[in-house]
Each structure stands twice: as structure tokens, then as C-alpha cells.
Amino acid sequence: MYIGHMVYVCRQIKRVLRRDGTFWLNVSDSYNGSGGAGGDYGPGGLREGQPKYPGRKERNLQDGDLIMMPARLALALQADGWIVRNDNPWSKHPMPEPRKGWRHERPACPCVSELREKHIQSQMAEQGVDRHRIYDKAGTKFEPDPDCPNCHGSGRSGGHAFKDESWRHTRSHEFVFQLVKQRGYYSNSEIIKTPTGANPLSVIVAKRHNYSGKHFAVFPPGLVMPLVRASVPIRACSTCGKPWAPVIDRVQDEDGWVDFVSRYEATCSCKIVNNRAPRGESPDPEPGWVLDPFMGSGTTGLVAREFGVNFVGVDISFEYLDEQAKVRTRTGQPSKALDGLPMFDVGETS
Question: 77 by DSSP, 3-state: which?
């Protein structure tokens, strides 16, 4: 059902996307039979008190199977006519996962959980944020009470119990698919190339960004910024909308001849007639457009505003739009808040 719904939504995106446009789609994975969806259902979340989503339980997969949802969705979108140009892994800094292997272990002493709860309550009061946000900031390791009569400061009490948990590596990546309608789509490689002039690597490194709102899965601006800059024109024809392209010239410096962008020029055949543009449009270029169909907290709109391009956002949740997104994306002059953020991790060149 999820894949079918996503194919339908992406079909509508394809309907309004320019032929030279790009659609960036972030997809994460999960395990068959895993629990419900995150902290929105926790105390202070926007879905607090609602019945929790029971998790995915596919009959054709075994319990604990990685569903491989990004791959399945990408194949479905290919079958529906999209061109999948790349499957960029987004390298994240995830929360620790308590997955351990076989062991005999004493249970945790209640004094540890009591200290954790006391710390969380104090952080909530101090920072003025909801409970489910504290886990990102407070950590999960707490020293036991050295005067506890049960564990005597060890943090463990009672007899050993055998546990046969299913260990695995902590998942630290999601996928960002680059989807297009045709070859020859617009891109500005000059604005995101590495210092050596090479294309950036496909692995995108973007650290988590502090955010105190109620949305539990927020994009860091460092993930969105290079994608917007690479695929949204800062200048486009005000008549037909076709992006302008950089003009590349060469200059000699101490390292030899290097390329540089001297200006931007039109790529369309729209002409000025009698000092007026066709259909009364202004001959001056205008910024391109960003559409975010899953707007959430509005990070993409925030980046679009800072980059100086137009933005339209849509989300199924009125609460997210009303309480967060419209505040972060309100139009105004760019504040240069994104200056200094890394584009792509340079690492090796390609």
C-alpha cells in the first residue's frame, strides 16, 4: 500500500515538474515487524494519545527482515516512467541502538532509571522543550547511585539472566534518490564542484541540526542546501521559465589556467520585440521554483528562502504547517544563515 500510494503521489509531482527539473526523494528503511513510528506518539508529541501505528508486518517477509523499502520504491518509480539517476546515501549521526548479542547479564538497577527520569524532567524545565526532544540532547548513559543498597554503585542488581538478542550494526544512513523525467535536465555543477573541480561524491554527509519543535524527523539544512543549489536555477527566463546557464571562461593564476563563471546567460529563444518581452512579461530573469510535497517542519522552504529562490510547500499535517513550517519559511530577505555550511563532503574526488 505504501509503495502504491507513493507512486501515485510521485506521479502527480511528475505531472507538474518541468521537463528539465529534478525531484529529490528521501526514503528510509525499516524492519518487518518493527514497532511504531517514533516520538510523535510520545508525551508532548503532536500525536500524543492517538493509537500508535503497529508497524509493518509483511506476510512475504520474515520477522526481523530488512524490508528494503528504498530499493522497492525506486524500482516501482522506474516502472512508472521516472529515470533514477542516483541513489545518494545520506550518512547520518544516529541515536544509539540497544542491539546486543548473546550474553548472561544482570538486569539494570532501578536507581539508574530513576536518575534518568529526574534528569529528563530537569532538562524539560530548563530547555522548555517536549519530552521526546530530550533524548537527542540528554543522552542515554547515566551513572548509578553509589549509595544504592541494591547495586552498590554498579548499576546492576539481581541474578544473571540469559539473553539472545539479535545484534546488528547501527543503521546510520538513508537514501536520497535523484529522479528526473529526461536526460539533459538542468543542473549547475559549477556551484557545487569540489575545490579540485571534480563532482562531489554521492555519499552526502549532513549532521543533525538542533530543533526544538514537535516534528520528530527534521532534515538538517546541510542535507537540503546542496541539492537545491545544484538543481534550482537562481536565474530563469521570465517568459518560458527555462533556466539560465553559467558562462564558463578561463583565467590564469599562480596555479595555471582555471575555469570560472563570468556571468549567466539565457538558454531559450525568447526575444525582446520593440523593447518588450513576449506577452508583456519582464525581460529580466526571475528565480526558479522549489516544490516540497512533504513539507513537515519547513527546512526545504527555509533553505529556498536563504538561497533566494521561490518556494511552494505542501503537507498533510495542518499542525506542522501552522505551528512550524510557515514560521521558518516566511518570505523575506536572505539572512545568510546558511553561509558556512558544508556543501558535500569532499573526501576523494571522482
Answer: helix
Length of the chain (residues): 350
Which class for 38: exposed (0-12), middle (13-18), buried (19 or more C-beta within 10 A)? middle
Crossing angle of the two packed helices 2-16 and 69-79, in degrees rounded to 10: 50
- Contact predicate 170/99, CB 8 Å: yes
Domains of the chain: 2-96+168-244+286-328 (3.40.50.150), 102-164 (no CATH), 245-285 (no CATH)
- CA distances 348 to 9, 117, 198, Å, are 36, 44, 9
Half-sphere exposure of 332 (CA within 13 A, CB side): 9
User: Among residues 201, 239, 139, which one has the least CA distance to residue 350?
Assistant: 201
Closest CA to 90 of 145, 29, 137, 136: 29
CB 98 within 8 A of CB 26: no
Q: Which residues pair with 23 in a beta bridge?
A: 179
Give the whole-angstrom CA distance, residue 129 versus residue 141: 20
**Tell me: the pLDDT tens digits for 221-240?**
889 999 999 999 999 998 89
Instruction: Judge whether residue 349 has pLDDT over 80.
Output: no
Closest-CA residue to 111 (of 76, 155, 69, 168): 155
Picking from 180, 173, 209, 208, the residue whose alpha carbon sits closest to that of residue 89 is: 173
- What gap in Å lies between CA 286 and CA 241, rounded to an integer? 8
Strand pairing category for 256-265 and 102-105? unpaired
- For residue range 121-179, list pLDDT tens digits in order: 887 787 776 665 554 444 456 778 888 999 988 888 889 999 998 888 888 899 999 99
Q: Where are the alpha helices (DSSP H) in 269-337?
A: 299-307, 318-320, 326-328
SS3 222: helix
